[in-house]
Amino acid sequence: DIQMTQSPSSLSASVGDRVTITCRASQSMSSYLSWYQQKPGKAPKLLIYAASSLQSGVPSRFSGSGSGTDFTLTISSLQPEDFATYYCQQSYSTPWTFGQGTKVEIK
Amino acid sequence: QVQLVESGGGLVKPGGSLRLSCAASGFTFSDYYMSWIRQAPGKGLEWVSYISSGGTTISYADSVMGRFTISRDNAKNSLYLQMNSLRAEDTAVYYCAGVVMKYYYYMDVWGKGTTVTVSS
Description:
The complex is a heterodimer of chains A (107) and B (120).
Chain A: E1 4-7, E2 10-13, E3 19-25, E4 33-38, E5 45-49, E6 53-54, E7 62-67, E8 70-75, E9 85-90, E10 97-98, E11 102-106
Parallel strand pairs in A: 2-11
Antiparallel strand pairs in A: 1-3, 3-8, 4-5, 4-9, 5-6, 7-8, 9-10, 9-11
Chain B: E1 3-7, E2 10-12, E3 18-25, E4 33-39, E5 45-51, E6 58-60, E7 68-73, E8 78-83, E9 92-101, E10 105-110, E11 114-118
Parallel strand pairs in B: 2-11
Antiparallel strand pairs in B: 1-3, 3-8, 4-5, 4-9, 5-6, 7-8, 9-10, 9-11
C-alpha cells in the first residue's frame, strides 16, 4: 500500500498569510494526487486533481504542485472561509489512501 | 443540480448487517465510477471501495474485503454498499462519491454522508 504522510498535522495562520501543506508518498506515483478540503460536519470538497489541476469553481488562491513522491498544496492568501482540514489522496494504486489531514486554524 | 444522497445508516449490533444506498441526480450516473469513503468519529478519511461505471470492475480496502459488497443499478441511478459482519471499528460516517476515471482519477462529487454506528 502507498502511505501518504502530510505535514504539518496542524498549523495556525492569519488571514492573508501564505500557507503551504506538504504530502509525501511512500513510493512514486506520478501525478495521481488529489487535494480535498473538509469543514466540520461537512463532506470533503475536491480542490486539486492530477497534482496541479484546479477543480472548476475553486478559487485561484489554491494551487498544487509536485510529482513522484512529493506534493504541495499552497493557499496564496488565506481567507476566513479557508479554515478547515485538508487531505491529500493518491489514486495511483489500490487501496487508494489519504494523508492523515492538516488542520488549518486561526491564529 | 449535481447531487448524491446517502441513506440507510443507523445503529446495528456487532455481527449485524446494514445496506447503504446512494441516490444520484443531475449527472449521467452510468458514465461515472462510484466510490464509498468513510470517516470514523474524530478521524481522517478512509477509502472503502469503488465500482466501475458498468459494474464489472470492483476494488475494496483490505479492512472490508469479504464483509462488504458494493453494487450499482444504473437504471435507478443508485449505488449500494451491503455491509455484513459489522464490527465496532466500522462505526463511521459513510460518504458516496463520483469518480472521474479519465487519465487521472479523482472524486469530484460527494454526498453529505450517512452515519453507521456499530454498538451493543
